[in-house]
């Protein structure tokens, strides 16, 4: 039995040495007895060979016990794989639009803004540059004088606050009149302009400016001249002796005054609906007021 115990101890030492690194086995003691049992020796060698073959190697992966679910092998890639929980962040991706929930707050309804209707298109029906010496009355024997001179039509008025006018016989309802007026002499606060809807000396409209910047729209009625509205604008009206382009629109009960392309005033009055057209001037003092008119034009809406 002693020989069996020693052999078992030798086998244990050999097995332990192979497990920790495959170190070479050294015998520390010489067997004192000869083993005669060949079959036992053969069995010991077989056990040592099996232990050596089954010993774990340092370069081999750890064996994972089999489970009831198969383990999926990760694909081989030359790039370093991201961790299982990592998700690549896309670049240049627009943020989602935030949709606000509808509310029950009523929105204020803004009424449409009133727009000014466009001006009508006009057709020229009469024009006169006063070079022909026709169409207008001539009067030089009275205090108020009317005559052709210097390529225009001259009107003189020495009577304070009395309208001197000259009109043609043609009748117009809706009409636009334009004329150029230049002060020749007299007070700067006198005024001059165009007449529309003239039926007689007591019924017409006067749209006028003055060389001091004054402007106004008046209605002549029996006994007096009533200004519907007036004002002052030296930026639109040329002062001194500079010529002014005067325009008067008498359309559908609306009276509009323009000077040098600037709209000065608009009033509503439908007292007179049609009549002749012409020119007029008024002095505010006893000094004679003289104006020369040129380029008289009459337009009607299309």
Features:
2 helices, Jelly Rolls, 8-stranded antiparallel beta sheet, 6-stranded antiparallel beta sheet, mainly beta, 14 strands, 2 domains, 302 residues
Can you characterise this structure?
- The protein is mainly beta.
- It has two domains: 2-54, no CATH class; 122-301, Exo-inulinase, domain 1 (Jelly Rolls).
- It has two helices and 14 strands; from the N terminus they run ααββββββββββββββ.
- Strands 1, 2, 3, 5, 10, 11, 12 and 14 form an eight-stranded antiparallel beta sheet that branches. Strands 4-13-6-7-8-9 form a six-stranded antiparallel beta sheet, with no helix packed on it.
- A hairpin with a 3-residue loop joins strand 7 and strand 8.
- The N and C termini lie far apart (144 Å).
Secondary structure layout:
Layout: H1 2-19, H2 38-54, E1 122-128, E2 145-149, E3 152-157, E4 164-167, E5 175-185, E6 191-200, E7 203-210, E8 214-221, E9 224-232, E10 244-251, E11 254-259, E12 262-268, E13 276-282, E14 289-301
Antiparallel strand pairs: 1-14, 2-3, 3-14, 4-13, 5-10, 5-14, 6-7, 6-13, 7-8, 8-9, 10-11, 11-12
Helix pairs in contact: 1-2
CATH H-tier superfamily of the largest domain? Exo-inulinase, domain 1
Radius of gyration: 60 Å
Compute the number of strand runs.
14
Helix content: 10-25%
How far apart, in Å, are the first and last alpha carbons?
144 Å
Low-confidence stretches: 1-37, 58-79
Q: How much beta, percentage-wise?
A: 35-45%
Number of domains: 2
Q: What structural category arises from helix and sheet content?
A: mainly beta
CATH level 1 name of the largest domain: Mainly Beta
Largest sheet: 8 strands, antiparallel
CATH architecture identity of the largest domain: Sandwich
CATH topology of the largest domain: Jelly Rolls
> Average pLDDT, to the nearest integer?
77
Alpha plus pi helix count:
2
């Amino acid at each position: 039995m002693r020989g069996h115990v020693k052999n078992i101890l030798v086998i244990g030492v050999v097995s332990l040495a192979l497990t920790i690194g495959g170190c070479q086995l050294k015998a520390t003691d010489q067997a004192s007895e000869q083993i005669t049992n060949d079959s036992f020796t053969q069995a010991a060698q077989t056990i040592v060979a099996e232990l050596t073959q089954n010993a774990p190697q340092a370069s081999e992966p750890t064996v994972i016990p089999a489970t009831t679910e198969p383990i999926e092998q990760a694909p081989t890639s030359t790039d370093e794989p991201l961790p299982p929980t990592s998700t690549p962040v896309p670049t240049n991706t627009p943020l989602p639009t935030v949709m606000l929930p509808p509310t029950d707050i009523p929105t204020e309804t803004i009424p449409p803004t009133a727009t000014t209707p466009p001006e009508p298109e006009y057709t020229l029906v009469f024009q006169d540059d006063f070079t022909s010496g026709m169409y207008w009355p001539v009067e030089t024997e009275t205090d108020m004088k009317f005559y052709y001179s210097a390529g225009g039509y001259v009107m003189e008025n020495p009577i304070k606050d009395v309208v001197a006018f000259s009109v043609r016989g043609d009748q117009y309802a809706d009409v636009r009149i334009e004329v150029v007026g230049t002060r020749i002499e007299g007070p700067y606060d006198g005024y001059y302009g165009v007449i529309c809807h003239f039926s007689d000396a007591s019924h017409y409209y006067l749209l006028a400016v003055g060389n001091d910047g004054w402007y106004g729209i008046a209605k002549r009625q029996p006994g007096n001249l009533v200004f519907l509205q007036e004002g002052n604008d030296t930026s639109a009206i040329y002062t001194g002796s500079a010529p002014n382009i005067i325009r008067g629109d008498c359309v559908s009960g609306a009276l509009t005054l323009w000077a040098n392309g600037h709209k000065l005033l608009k009033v509503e009055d439908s007292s007179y609906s049609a009549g002749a057209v012409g020119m007029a001037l008024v002095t505010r003092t006893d000094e004679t007021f003289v104006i020369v008119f040129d380029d008289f034009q009459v337009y009607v809406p299309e």
